[in-house]
Design brief:
Elements: E1 2-9, E2 13-20, E3 25-32, E4 44-45, H1 47-63, E5 69-77, E6 83-85, E7 95-96, H2 104-113, H3 116-124, H4 133-143, H5 145-150, E8 153-155, H6 157-166, E9 171-172, H7 173-177, E10 182-183, E11 188-189, H8 191-197, E12 207-208, E13 213-216, H9 219-225, E14 232-234, E15 237-238, H10 239-246, E16 254-259, E17 263-269, E18 281-284, E19 291-297, H11 301-311, H12 332-335, H13 339-347, E20 357-359, E21 377-379, H14 387-409, E22 418-422, H15 429-439, E23 443-446, H16 453-464, H17 471-476, E24 480-484, H18 491-517
Parallel strand pairs: 1-5, 5-15, 9-12, 16-22, 22-23
Antiparallel strand pairs: 1-2, 2-3, 4-7, 6-8, 10-11, 13-14, 16-17, 17-19, 18-19, 20-21, 23-24
Length: about 525
């Protein structure tokens, strides 16, 4: 049996997925790893955790299908992370991740140097959002000068895995878009902006189209990952972009949502449309003749993970001490309830969570409110609410944030007549129904939707070696397996909840700023 391998370096773990040349899922495996938050608003990971996670996930997937012929590997990963390497390609410090908020001042500096927001949009068609790689580079330059002086290469997470697999230093157009230093209209580095900011162009890797072969598995990579030497490795894509493709969204008018750690609303564009106020992100698509419009809310599934880890550890209603990552004893998963158990409590609460709303801004926010000072909040909490109501409010809050972003896309002609959903949230019938109710349209999942970006990476690998003649053909192979329709009985309730939700951030913005400047945080 011939197969394609997709590897996704996520925030909480790595997934390896094997699909056949018909697009059907053959086998998958995952390996988890921790996130480090050494200070408020910081988020880091040791890149070696990704390598070990990929090694374990690939071994697990291949063990489930030991007789197949592996044709090509596609890579995906969390976007915007800064992996800093020295001249010997050794990691200089823990990677600074996409949801890290430390470089707010540096992003403002870059914007000023570019000539304000207008100049920045002229250079890249995007804001320099907090979390983008460009701001992290400047942060290192200003705060870790000794390490910065030794840095010779900057990579994003999946591209570090590429380096370890193939020995090649490279990225592709979708992840390059997320650095904030890339002109998405020309699909090239924004050289004038890079020079103005004072970043050495040599730090940035060569850029491939996503569906081009970027290298082959080396002898070292083969020994480390158990993948045959010489196996071609495609350019791949950043997770937020490639999972849209993996959901079969390539035609204008369709929306794609992802409820993973972040909440993502995305659509394909035929042209790199102007991004007037920069609140949306317009990136290069993994299809060479397409672009990608999206908004990213920094917490969706991440808010659920926080709630579970804070209030459910040790079982439903039971507390326990969580061992550290390297401690012996029961694993974290063994002492915490599954998401299915928690969602069952949420399902007992009615739509609207009996008047309880949740703002999911636990790590600041990116879209539709680019505000690193934003904070999470429960609004409407009373003594009558139970834990099921609170869980439901957390779940609905992530969906309200997605719908909030859609208001920015409508002027671009993205009407959202149907939503295709992916990521971990796509496995939850309740979360799918919430999306149908709050968006007010049908919500579909495709066969690989729950596999997220790894499925899209495998599809890209197939296009790279000619299994499919083009991206549209590959996207067309995505089979629809579930459909949720809006519940008309709850339409008025969820519409009112969404209306009130949209008023909350403007009312609380000043309070969030005060909290960020306060001394009791």
């Amino acid at each position: 049996m011939q197969a394609l391998l997709g590897i996704d370096i996520g925030t909480s773990g790595c997934k390896a997925l094997l699909i056949g040349i018909d697009g059907a899922v053959i086998a998958a495996d995952t390996a988890s790893y921790p996130l480090s938050q050494p200070q408020l608003g910081w988020a880091e990971q040791d890149p070696e955790l990704w390598v070990e996670g990929a090694r374990r996930a690939v071994a697990g997937a291949l063990a489930k299908a030991p007789t197949l012929e592996l044709l090509c590997v596609g890579l995906s990963g969390q976007m915007h992370g800064l992996v800093s390497l020295d001249v010997a390609h050794q990691v200089l410090r823990p990677a600074i991740l996409w949801n890290d908020q430390r470089n707010s001042a540096e992003c403002e500096q870059i914007t000023d140097v570019a000539g304000g927001l207008k100049g920045l949009l002229a250079a890249t068609n995007n804001r320099m959002l907090v979390g983008y790689t460009g701001g992290k580079i400047v942060w290192m330059q200003q705060h870790e000068a000794e390490l910065f002086s030794r840095m010779t290469t900057v990579l994003n997470p999946k591209d570090y895995l590429r380096l370890r697999l193939t020995g090649e230093v490279a990225t592709e157009v979708s992840d390059a878009s997320g650095t904030g230093l890339f002109d998405v209209r020309t699909r090239q580095w924004a050289s004038d902006l890079i020079d103005k900011v004072g970043i050495d162009r040599a730090l940035l890797p060569p850029v491939f189209e996503s569906q081009v072969i970027s290298g082959q598995v080396s002898a070292v990579g083969a020994e480390l990952f158990g993948i045959p030497k010489g196996t071609p490795v495609a350019g791949g894509g950043g997770d937020a972009v490639i999972q849209t493709f993996g959901s079969g969204v390539i035609a204008p008018g369709e929306l794609q949502t992802t409820i993973g750690t972040a909440g993502i609303l995305a659509a394909a564009l035929d042209t790199p449309q102007a991004n007037p106020d920069g609140r949306l992100q317009v990136f290069c698509n993994v299809a060479a003749d397409k672009w990608h419009c999206m908004g990213v809310s920094l917490n969706a599934g991440g808010a659920m993970s926080w709630f579970r880890d804070t209030f459910y550890v040790g079982g439903v209603g039971v507390s326990a001490t969580v061992p550290s990552f390297d401690q012996t004893g029961p694993s974290f998963d063994q002492i915490t309830p599954s998401f299915e158990q928690i969602v069952a409590e949420a399902a007992a609460s009615p739509a609207g969570a009996r008047g309880l709303l949740f703002l999911p801004y636990l790590n600041g926010e990116r879209c539709p409110h680019p505000d690193p000072a934003a904070r999470g909040a429960f609004i409407g909490l009373t003594a009558c609410h139970d834990r099921g109501d609170v869980v439901r409010a957390v779940m609905e809050g992530g969906v309200h944030a997605l719908v909030d972003m859609h208001t920015l896309m409508k002027p671009l002609g993205i009407d959202g007549r149907v939503v295709k959903t992916s990521g971990g949230g796509a496995r939850s019938p309740l979360w799918r129904q919430m999306q149908a109710d709050i968006f007010g349209c049908d919500v579909l999942t495709t066969e690989g939707a729950a596999e997220g970006a790894a499925f899209g990476a495998a599809l890209v690998a197939g296009v790279a070696i000619g299994v499919w003649p083009d991206a549209a053909s590959a996207a067309g192979s995505c089979r629809i397996i579930t459909r949720e329709q809006p519940d008309l009985a709850t339409a008025a309730v969820v519409a009112e909840a969404q209306r009130i939700y949209r008023t909350l951030y403007p009312l609380l913005r000043g309070t969030f700023a005060e909290l960020g400047d306060s001394t009791f945080m």
